[in-house]
From TrEMBL:
The chain crosses the membrane at residues 43-62, 517-541. This is non-specific protein-tyrosine kinase. Keywords: ATP-binding, Coiled coil, Kinase, Membrane, Nucleotide-binding, Transferase, Transmembrane, Transmembrane helix, Tyrosine-protein kinase. It comes from Hymenobacter chitinivorans DSM 11115. The keyword Transferase applies. The lineage of its organism: Bacteria, Pseudomonadati, Bacteroidota, Cytophagia, Cytophagales.
Length: 823
């Protein structure tokens, strides 16, 4: 029988401890807003602290961080020259074909070049930085230093080193510095040279040196060219703002606003000077080149002119083509004249023939011009007169011969006159023919000369063209160079700055870094973010049951009620308090649980109810709930007995302040009777039986038939049997008793019981079919209307203390109320 009971016990333990393969998943998944709000409320003080910490960090950052100021100017690249206005293309005009972006990029590189940096260092005193020690941070004394340092350094180890200076009197000062890792210090006088190996310093006073300035601590740093260039490169920014408008922005950042402004304005100035110098230099070089080229070209042009002049003097012509045309025209004119002369010679021969025939005309009525056409071409009036006279004499002679004989004196006189005229005509014709022939010969000679000249003209044309080519080339180059020289002279006179300062640098009024509003906003956001992270961490690390909602979401057991915290007094063990505080919140909450038990039982007058009270581990308050629940039921005129079956750690007797000499263990082994072990309490209808001495086999005693017989015997005297069972998470005795109970109750302590414990409740319900298993949330600090509770300490190695409070609470301070409000 004992073997079968042990097997049944082990099977029960396995079924209670492990979930079935096809078991339904435990409830409680997802985001629990109630728990989240509870965690958030409990973290409010931490959130406030983190926000204060973030704002404090922001304040410290602003307090110990040097503000950075930015000064900027806006320039417009607007190149203008008088040459451009005149329409002349000079080197100072805008480059054709180059894009605005490329041009502006070149200007940016020029501004950030060593050329501008060198001019900047020559204009501003950037080689020596002066500082004064403040309360927290050091300040640079740009332009307001009470002393000035001039130096001559030969040893580069002195560059970029810190020299501390403290005034020891009106004219005395102490100078200390590190050299090759060793500190050197000495006292010197203002105005006198400080001579050390590798360096000579002279410290002189400025008008700002007064009594107040003598009390401060100073130091200065002598920078080399590399340090100054690096400082300028780091803090100077030149950006193209609008390529279409040719605008660029020059900005400089520094801890000193006046220094940043002065550097930007000085960059604008030296940039203007450099641009003008470059333009003037380029123009001067161009003019120098033009002068040199003009001199060389002038010499070549003069040589070409001399060669051309020699050709003209030799050939007596400069335009061969025109000469050819003239000669051709002369040949034509000469040929025309020659032909006329030939015609004249022919006409004279014809006249001579007619004269010899003694007949000039055929008709008496015809004139000489009609009989001899072209006679007018003879152009000899005497000959024409003689011919007319001959013609008249011939007609008279023929008329006389018709009337007279040839021997007639009149005929002879007429014949004599006729012979005389013929002789004159022959003489005139001969003269004219000789004259015409002479003219014809001269014409032929001129024609031959013109033809000879025409044959030599192509060679002259070639020679002339060869001489003209260098002359025209040098002449054109000379004229072009002269024009360019005039253009560049005008451009040089009209050179103006190629940029306009649209917005000059001004004194920055507020730092760009750190931005106070942004820093404080970051600190506030950081504090809030850390607070939210804290809430998230605490929420995800929150593994205890804190409220009824969590209990309802995480278990399928019915919730009978909530027992609030009660801290009227501190108790080291559980006690019966409902009889002493019948109107307290805790009494009311237990009465509510009693009422719910009546509903679950089906009738408030039902007899013989067996109620078991258990928990997962010790310390969750099952003994306290058992004792006070029994007291409340007993106050309702029902007879109640409490059995302490936690025989390993008995505590019921401690709750009533009684001994544990005999009890359940002695009854089950028939050492004592029930009546011998029953102990009475301050409530007449409430009795209890302690656990008795701890037996070696509590589980076997509970499974024995004697245990059932004991219950039947108790039913004869009591209406309700309340059993304080061992924790089911530690031993299995509680499960055995819960199987026999009418209403098994599971105690969950707020802020103590782990959420994983609730999975054990669901497993118990599924494995053992505990359909009436109920849960009670104990020690709740958020119980709705009441908000009271209790404290106690007990067993199984878990001790804690807590008290119960009446509704009338003691007067507490504001801080205590706030602390309780947010915890």
């Amino acid at each position: 029988m004992a073997v079968n009971e042990n097997a049944e016990l082990e099977e029960l333990i396995r079924s209670a401890g492990g979930a079935e393969p096809n078991a339904v998943e435990d409830e409680g998944g997802g985001l629990d807003l109630t728990t989240l709000l509870l965690v958030a409320r409990r973290s409010i003080l931490w959130i406030i602290l983190l926000i204060a910490l973030g704002l404090s960090a922001s304040w410290l950052l602003l307090r110990y961080t040097k503000p950075v100021y930015k000064s900027s100017s806006l320039l417009k690249i607007d190149e203008k020259t008088e040459a451009g206005i005149l329409g002349l293309d000079g080197p100072v005009g805008q480059a054709v074909g180059s894009s605005n972006v490329n041009k502006l990029s070149g200007e940016v590189e020029l501004i950030k070049s060593n050329i501008i940096y060198q001019r900047l260092k020559d204009s501003l005193e950037l080689n020596v930085n002066y500082y004064v020690e403040g309360t927290v941070l050091e300040n640079e004394l740009y332009g307001i230093s009470p002393f000035k340092v001039s130096y001559d350094i030969k040893d580069p180890n002195f560059y970029n080193s810190k020299f501390n200076l403290n005034f020891t009197g009106g004219k005395q000062f102490r100078l200390s510095y590190l050299y090759l890792g060793q500190e050197r210090s000495a006292t010197y006088t203002l105005g006198q040279p400080v001579v050390v190996p590798g360096m000579t310093l002279v410290v002189t006073a400025t008008p700002l040196l007064d009594e107040e300035a003598l009390e401060k601590n100073y130091h200065f740093v002598i920078n080399d060219d590399g340090a100054v260039n690096n400082y300028l490169n780091t803090n100077l920014s030149v950006d193209i703002v609008n390529p279409d408008a040719n605008t660029i922005q020059i900005a400089f950042t520094d801890f000193n606003p006046a220094k940043a402004r002065d550097i930007v304005n000085k960059i604008d100035t030296v940039y203007l000077q450099e641009k003008l110098a470059k333009k003037q230099e380029a123009t001067a070089q161009t003019l120098q080149f033009l002068d040199k080229t003009l001199t060389e070209n002038q010499q070549k042009l003069q040589s070409a002119e001399e060669n051309l002049q020699a050709f003209v003097r030799q050939n007596k012509t400069y335009d061969v083509k025109t000469e050819v045309a003239g000669i051709t025209e002369k040949l034509a004119e000469q040929e025309e004249v020659r032909l006329k002369l030939v015609e004249k010679a022919r006409l004279l021969g014809e006249i001579s023939r007619l004269v010899e025939q003694d007949r000039l005309t055929q008709n008496e009525d015809a004139t000489l011009e009609q009989s001899i056409p072209g006679i007018a071409a003879v152009e000899d009036a005497q000959l024409t007169q003689q011919l007319s006279e001959l013609n008249a004499l011939q007609w008279n002679l023929r008329r006389l011969l018709r009337s007279y004989n040839e021997t007639t004196e009149a005929v002879k006189q007429q014949q004599a006159q006729l012979a005389y005229v013929k002789n004159n005509i022959r003489r005139l014709i001969q003269q004219n023919r000789r004259l015409v022939q002479t003219q014809i010969d001269r014409m032929n000679q001129q024609r031959d000369q013109f033809n000879a000249e025409l044959q030599t003209l192509p060679q002259k044309e070639t020679e002339l063209a060869r001489l003209k080519r260098p002359f025209e080339l040098y002449e054109k180059s000379y004229l072009m160079l002269m024009d360019k020289k005039v253009e560049f002279s005008i451009a040089k006179a009209g050179t103006t700055p190629d940029f306009q300062i649209l917005s000059p640098a001004s004194m920055p009024s507020a730092p760009i870094s750190p931005v106070r509003t942004m820093i404080y906003a970051i600190g506030l956001a950081g504090g809030i973010a850390l607070g939210l992270a804290l809430i998230a961490v605490r929420y995800f690390m929150h593994n205890t049951v804190t409220n009824v909602r969590e209990l309802e979401r995480s278990t399928s057991a019915s919730v009978l009620g909530v027992i609030p915290t009660y801290d009227k007094e501190k108790m080291t063990v559980s006690k019966l308090v409902v009889d002493k505080n019948p109107k307290s919140a805790i009494s009311e909450s237990i009465r509510s649980i009693r009422t719910n038990l009546d509903f679950i039982s089906g009738s408030s007058t039902k007899k013989r109810r067996l109620i078991s009270v258990t928990s997962t581990i010790s310390g969750e308050g099952k003994t306290f709930v058992t004792v006070n629940l029994g007291g409340i039921i007993a106050l309702s005129e029902q007879r109640v007995v409490i059995l302490d079956l936690d025989m390993r750690k008995p505590k019921v007797n401690l709750a009533f302040g009684a001994e544990n000499i005999k009890g359940i263990s002695t009854i089950l082994i028939d050492k004592h009777t029930i009546l011998e072990c029953v102990q009475h309490t301050s409530i007449p209808t409430l009795d209890f039986i302690s656990a008795g001495p701890t037996p070696p086999n509590p589980s076997e005693l509970i499974l024995s038939a004697r245990f059932d017989e004991m219950l039947e015997e108790l039913y004869q005297h009591y209406d309700v049997i309340l059993i304080d069972t061992p924790p089911v998470g530690l031993v299995t005795d509680g499960i055995l008793i819960m199987r026999k109970a009418d209403i098994p109750i599971y105690i969950v302590r707020a802020n103590y019981s782990k959420k994983s414990f609730l999975k054990n409740v669901n497993k118990l319900i599924r494995a053992n079919n505990f359909t009436r298993l109920c849960a009670i949330l104990n020690d709740s600090t958020a119980s709705g209307l009441y908000g009271y509770g209790y404290g106690y300490g007990y067993g199984y190695g878990y001790g804690y203390g807590q008290g119960y409070y009446e509704e009338t609470r003691p007067v507490v301070g504001l801080f205590s109320r706030l602390r309780k409000r947010f915890t």
